[in-house]
Amino acid sequence: MAPYVGFDTEHIRDKARKDLLHLLEGVRGKKNLVIERSLAGPVGVIVNVSTLHDYGVDKFFVLENANADTSQRNVVFMARGECARHAQAIADQIKRLQRESQTGHEFHIFWVPRRTLVSDRLLEEAGVLGDVNISELPIYFFPLERDVLSLELDDSFRDLYLFKDTTPAFLMAKALMGIQSKHGLFPRVVGKGDHAKRVAELLTRMRQEIIAGETTDEANQTGLTPSNSIESVVIIDREVDFVTPLLTQLTYEGLIDEVWGIQNNQTDVDSTIVGAPPQPPSQSASTTPNPSLASRKRKIQLDSSDKLYDGLRDTNFAIVGTLLNKVARRLQSDYESRHGSKTTAELKDFVQKLPSYQAEHQSLKIHTGLAEDIMKHTRTDQFSRLLEAQQNLAAGADPSSQHDAIEELIARDTSLAEVLRLLCIYSCVSGGIKSKDFDHFRRLVLEGYGYQHLTTLHNLEKLQLFLSRSSPMANMIPMPGAGPATGTKTNYTYLRKQLRLIVDEVNEHDPDDIAYVYSGYAPLSIRLVQCVLQKQYLFSITRSNVAGAGTVAGSGAQGWRGFDDVVKHARGPAFDDIQKGEDKAVKARALLSGGGDKKTVFVVFVGGITFTEIAALRFIAKKEEGNQLYSPLLFLFV
Amino acid sequence: MEATNPTAGWEKVGEHFYRKTQLYTAVFDQDLDLDNYIVAGALYGGAVAICRDETRIVTYRPNQSAKPSIDIYSCAGKLLKSIAWDKGSVKGLGWSEDEKLLVVSYDGTVRCYYDLQGEFTQFSLGREAEDFGVHSCRFYDHGMVALLTNNTLVSVSSYDEPRPKLLATPPEGEIHSWAIIPPSFTLSRSVEVLLSIGKTVYVVDATDCEDRFLDIGPFTHISTSPNGKFTALYATDGKAHVITSDFQDRLSEYDSRSQITPKYLQWCGNDAVVVAWEDEVNVVGPKSAVTSFVYEGRVHVIADHDGVRLLTNDVCDFVQRVPDVTDEVFRYGTESPASVLLDAVEQLENQSPKADDNIQLIRSNLVEAVDNCVTAAGHEFSVHWQKQLLKAASFGKSVLDIYNSDDFVDMCETLRVLNAVRYYEIGLPLSYEQYQRLTPEGLIQRLINRHEYLLALKVAGYLHLATDRIYVHWASAKVRTGAEDDSTICRMVVEKLAGKPGISFETIARAAYDEGRRRLATELLDHEPRAGRQVPLLLSMEEDEIALDKAIESGDSDLIFFVLLQLKKKLTLASFFRVINTRPAATALVESSAMLEGDNILLKDLYYQDDRRVDGAGVFIREALQQPDARTSGDKLALAAKLLSDSRENNFELIALKEAATLLRTQEALGRDLTDSFKGLSVNETLYKLIHLGYSNKAKRIQSEFKVPEKVAWWIRLRALVAKRDWNEIEEIAKSRKSPIGWEAGNARLAAIFIPKCTNLEPGAVITMYEKCGMRVKAAEEAVKARDADAWVRLLEVVGKNTSEGREIERLGTQVFNK
């Protein structure tokens, strides 16, 4: 048996890179790469453009633009196999190229993450199946950070909740299965919510199918015994807690996301804010068709390779200014230190450090620029109005007191997304809106932003985000004191108290609770994770509000134990499965790897996660580092 | 067995020994004249296919059927299958690495017989081949290249998904001979073809054709070595050349001094070349060293990975280079530790004390000696010497204190398997090295293909391998050929396979279905645990609804889509909807894909038959948005409204739609009157624009028409006027009425004028507003009025005590705050 190693996202990155480059190598000579738009960013996380050039990629095209030209003999398409539209688009382009070009072409398709029957069928119907070489590029997870993996499905929320298309859940299960087959079964699967349950069921099913499959030989046995480098997996369905992502994120990273949006660890910012890029990037001309447009925007890489950013990203924005100031002062004194250096050795030392100072200086400049611009944004009257209304609603203030504020925001032409977020929080927290008010708000939105948003509102209704109390779906919402109807809708009024979602005194400089990420509101989703991982802490802060607490707290209870009642008040089924293997194999495994290693907990969000939630999870991970045997590892799934 | 000397068949070729091992005798029927047949053998001691060589005339025999056939024999000459061939002349006969028989006909039809039992898949080499015809073919481990009569080359790189591709066009001229280098050994990772044209050799791959500039041709034979590094060329003048495959180095040359063109030029391992004429076989090593074997009758040479098999009517021989370890143990006069150890065992059997002397002699190298004996045993074909060597190893390791016996045990197991399959009734003469490359799984597959289920099971059990494939194959064969009725067979199969892990009932069911036993297929399919696997078969069996259910059960949306695609094509829309209606997961997928592809017609029908009025109206609204002019979008909106009009629940939507239509009309009218476009604006935006353009009255009319709340309207008016910088107007309306919204949001400088007009403001807010306007004195005044000492001090600090402003502020404050 191979030596057993812990989980590392770098492995996933390496494997993905190797797979991709291997496939590219298989296409002889220069080639044009036609890539699906939503894949371009994620692939950038794995390999950079210059590496692709090294492997013979000449020009890049976006599949959706349908502008691939005939300059190279080899044309490589790269798209997600799950989506039937792409097969059609590729077939159309192949036909176009064949028509337009005098010379013959070699067509290759790399399906990510798998080749599907449907795509084959569509290519066949289009009559091009015989002309293309098809390969699979099995990348499920894109490693964004050392502790974050993502499927990078942009539309997963829409697919899952509005269209009720469960493909993302299936892909997630597949991806988790990949981890299981490498590292062993998750010994425990805990979760909450319909889709979370679906993922867990799919995992069980896939496992059975593997057992039923061709794995009776010894070699593949690893996948079927519980892992001892993984403690458990916690799967949370986004549906359980819609309010958290609706609130404005208040960490530094969260606000960057709110203001400019972060995609694949990158954000596009006007270069007037952060200054022009230090040197003209040499490849940009070939990658972007319109350089003049590109020059105004600057792409900023936001990941942990930037030490400064790594320190700032998860802090509350309120203290970012102070921190930046501190760094600036330190840097200054570092620079100054050259005056103090007397011997040549000291000077040499300084010169050696100079590049790192310069890099830091550069990043300091960027982040000061960003922070200033965010500040401009947060200082506006509208922003503070919005935030105030949000926080009042989340804290459980009488919603009707916020009517004026909402009305004003609409009249002042605040962006539709913000207004709708506010209305949805209103509806979610108070279990629907009175039908008179509901109609009033709908009217305001339609008049303010156009009647076409009738469909938008209808969709929100379908998602149960924005409901009238009289609507049939709202009836399922358990109102305070309306009896123990549970599990159909998240009851914030109840959970706010039981899980202490509102923490009034937040120390933003040295936070002691996850509530700091929203300046006073602790995300419900993360509280649920704490129900599994940080029972004792949670008991201490909720002061045994929960009936029958205390007894189970200390005894190393697992799963939802101790919080069963509370969890019932959130939407969707809760589950707690234990995956066992043969005893013999478990023992052998334990013997081989030796105990004592830190175990990993996977936290999986189906349907997306916010940066603030990641920050909160990291906060938990840090807290638990010292006293427990595991360090949580996060997954997001956008 | 008689203990012949192990070195009996050894011949020295250059520095190395080559040995000829007789594998089987009495191979073919004496009536079969091998001279008239094309013979092709599979790698790793695989089956041999023969078919009549049509260029030769055969004596007519009345008792023999005249029908052309391709016969597959084992190496021991056991007829495995005779395949009737009806596609005209055979232009290519070859094997893939996994023992699939490929037969290519003149018109480019390729049949891939994948199981030795006559089952085949078929594909064509394409138009070019049909037009010009195939001249000859070359095969490699999982692909092939065909040479057409017009000198074009067609390559197929995979038999699972055959994609015939034309290679670069070679130059004109007669091709004397040709060979290929498999893609795994080329730099380009595409197959390369060596063509002898004129005096030189051309190398052709997918994109290029290069001349290698040789002047020693033309060549009658070209052959590349098993590791792809070397190429052997046989020129018409009887000289054989060995060069590296990149044509950089000429390694050796051998003059056969023969006028007759040889029949075969093949590599024997990577060090020697076999040149074979009718009945003489020469093994040519480096530096022109040569040894020859002479047979009675025609010899066919079958290249294998580590040697060649020689096939005549009487015998099947294997010629290979003597493996190094074997050489070390047996070479005459050797004193290697292993040979001493072997000798020690003989002494032991003779109960001679020399045995111990021998051991003492090699004491320091004993581990090496044991290892070598074990390995040498593996390379040995004779059971006697295998035993002897293993005994030696066993004896040697008994003397050692610590020795890891894993290799020894493995070798014993391996040899047992090898000897079992070498038995003439099975006829798989695997050498140890071939077995390593074939892998135990590959061996099992070969046994299954020969229907040697019992042996396969035993071997699999012995080597701890998966047995499911064997069972499945057995069951598939059973349902294909079993004469019993369906339920008996099903019971039999299920009983036999119950409790065995990993059984794919789907495969068995497919076999049954292919055989036309539909009921049996359905019954068997019920036992398949993997829902996803059942789907394609169910579809082909036209069990559409079950297929859909199974696909949904598997959770794999690809499968669901696949079934839906099929159903949609097959069924009428109404029955299609009937099928999906009861299955929400399927409906959701149909809906979402239609939404994404903009298939509005399907969506409308779907919503209509499902009575989802609001969704249906949504489609019309989206369509309305895409309309180029107001009139057509109005029509669409009317359609949407009509959909909703029947039920009372949707009153709000109905009103909204009517208003939307009104807005469109109004905007169009405004557009005409004011020669400015209002298209696409919302009510609020329209108001804003009107006020901005100075049409306050029109704006008022719209406000009342759409019942815009007063507060909202005020905000819009204010924003518009500020943007227009129409301060007079602002002052005007400020004077005339009391504002419901307060005045906080004005322009900084002018706002100051309005601050006193603000009502309902906290005093603190007034201070900050003045401050924002830069009027600190006024702010201080307010601070004093509000008795807000803190604000006052703050202001003072900001301004500085020594400026004129500062003094003024100080003056204001000191009286009140007594400072």
TrEMBL record, chain A:
One of its GO terms (biological process) is vesicle-mediated transport. Coiled coil: none annotated. SUPFAM superfamilies: Sec1/munc18-like (SM) proteins. It comes from the Eukaryota. Residues 282-292 have a biased composition (Low complexity). Belongs to the STXBP/unc-18/SEC1 family. This is Vacuolar protein sorting-associated protein 33A.
TrEMBL record, chain B:
It comes from the Eukaryota. Coiled coil: none annotated. Residues 6-410 form the Vps16 N-terminal domain. Transmembrane segments: none annotated. Keywords: Protein transport, Transport. GO terms for biological process: endosomal transport; intracellular protein transport; vacuole fusion, non-autophagic. GO terms for molecular function: actin binding. The keyword Transport applies. Residues 503-804 form the Vps16 C-terminal domain. One of its GO terms (cellular component) is HOPS complex. Essential for vacuolar protein sorting. Required for vacuole biogenesis, stability and to maintain vacuole morphology. Belongs to the VPS16 family. This is Probable vacuolar protein sorting-associated protein 16 homolog.
